[in-house]
Amino acid sequence: MATVTFRSDFAPNKLTELHDMVWSMPNIRTEIMLYLPSKDINTLLTTSKIHFQGAVEKLYRIFPYKEYDETIIRCRNKSRRSIYLNAVRVIDLGPYASCTSPTKWIRYFGPFPNARSVRGHVSSSTSSRAWTFESKDPSVLFRSSENGQHWYTFHERLWSEFTWDIAHPLDIPKTSMKTLKAWIYKQCVAIDMCDSSSSTVSVAKDQIRASLLDRAGSGGIVITSFVLRPQFLSEHILEICQELDTDGLFQLERLLIFDMDEASRRIIHRFAPDLVSLCIDLDDDAEDPMTLKRILGLIDWKRSLNLKSLTIRCSAGLQHVQDSSLQVASSLLALPGQSLEGVDHRSLSACMP
Predict the structure, then answer these.
(1) Residue 322: pLDDT band with limits 50, 70, 90
(2) H or E stretch covering 340
(3) Calpha distance 223→248 (Å, rounded)
(4) pLDDT attached to residue 333
(5) Degrees (nearest 5) of the Cα angle 66, 35, 342?
(6) CA distance 312 to 282
(7) How crowded is residue 278: how many other Cβ atoms within 10 Å of its Cβ?
(8) How far apart are CA 87 and CA 326, in angstroms?
(9) Which string of DSSP letters, residue by residue, matches 183-203?
(10) Contact at 8 Å (CB) between 238 and 267?
(11) Helix 49-59 with 12-23: angle, nearest 10 deg
(12) Distances (CA, A) of 226 to 15, 21, 221, 331
């Protein structure tokens, strides 16, 4: 077997210097970490001081609060413990959330000076019997700071989905949740639209725009999940999002679409940095059906850093299970932390942990 040796113009000590310089840049270090599995990150903890810092930033970014006491007991070295606690950005309350009022969540920020949010599942009630199921997503208390002062915004997530008939105003039942007066309160809503009046597309656009404009003006809600049905033109929805997004009405984390036209792709691109879950369900009988490979090529992966779940359903170009598996596997090689959950002759489900 032939051996190939690549010539380096740098002396070993110079290479080490360049390595340390590159690794000391937080944005580059974070980008590299995205592509490393957890077992490799754990290894970095013991290799060098500069690797230790980067590994801790990744491992402790989201911190389960139930491990706090154990961390304090296990780590006696105050300097190292400080590095752990300073790396935390999100505090996950887990079982502590159900027995603690959100008005007292502020205290959990105490040990974590750089934490930006506390999250946990809460329960509440409304006057509407239609709202009987709780969201799988946690409510979140966000903290922003400037000149030593803190401001808090509470995003309440109680309901998994709300079906809005656009023939009527968007009426979201208010909950009995109590928050501090100094907080900004937002109720996070997952919307699936329907139209009982069978309006024309232009009338539907005006109805949707008018209702959302009214809700944006009164405040109090954030749309975090959206189902874009085929009967509503995606270009109209895009125009509405562009107009109202300046008011913070849309912070889409979950999106389900049934088309990949230009407007749909622009909607995905616009909300890519916040998307956690993306589902693309295409019509098998379309005149010009898209192949799975083409769909994957249209997603801007560099902007989709928070994407955890990707589901694509289509049939074009996937005639054999084996061929489709190879096609999907090769297309996903560039994804950070990719984990293929399932693929068959017409669908793909992938999870990016």
Answers:
(1) very low
(2) strand 339-343
(3) 9
(4) 43
(5) 85
(6) 8
(7) 22
(8) 39
(9) SEEEEEEEEEEE-TT---HHH
(10) yes
(11) 30
(12) 49, 43, 14, 26
Inter-residue contact 150 to 177 (CB < 8 Å): no
Neighbours of 322 (CB within 10 A): 7
Structure tokens at 53: 């810092």
Task: Name the token pair of 74.
Answer: 């296990």
How far is the C-alpha of 189 from the C-alpha of 154, rounded, in Å? 13
**Beta strands at 221-228 and 184-194: parallel, antiparallel or unpaired:** parallel
Name the pTM for this structure: 0.66
Question: DSSP string covering 109-172, please?
Answer: GTT-TT--EEEE-----BS-TT-----SSPEEEEEEEETTEEEEEEEE---S-EEEETTS---P
Q: How far apart are CA 17 and CA 3, in angstroms?
A: 28
Q: CB neighbours of 328 closer than 8 A, spacing ≥ 6?
A: 292, 296, 340, 343, 348, 350
Q: Phi/psi of residue 144, each to 5°?
A: -120, 145
Q: What is the pLDDT of residues 57-109, one digit of tens each?
A: 888 889 999 999 999 999 888 888 999 999 999 999 988 887 788 888 999 99
Helix (H, G, I), strand (E, B) or coil at 77: coil
pLDDT recorded at residue 353? 45
**Lookup result for tokens 């490979």:** 293
The tokens describing 317, both together, are 């170009």
Residue 174 pLDDT exceeds 80 = no
pLDDT confidence of residue 176: 56
Q: How far is CA 234 from the centre of its chain?
A: 22
With pLDDT > 70 as the criterion, what percentage of the chain qualifies?
72
Rounded CA separation 261/286 (Å): 12
Considering only CA atoms, which of 266, 244, 247 is closest in space to residue 255?
Answer: 266
Element of type H or E holding 227: strand 221-228
The answer to whether 258 touches 234, Cβ cutoff 8 Å, is: no
Query: What interhelical angle do 201-218 and 234-244 show, nearest 10?
Result: 20
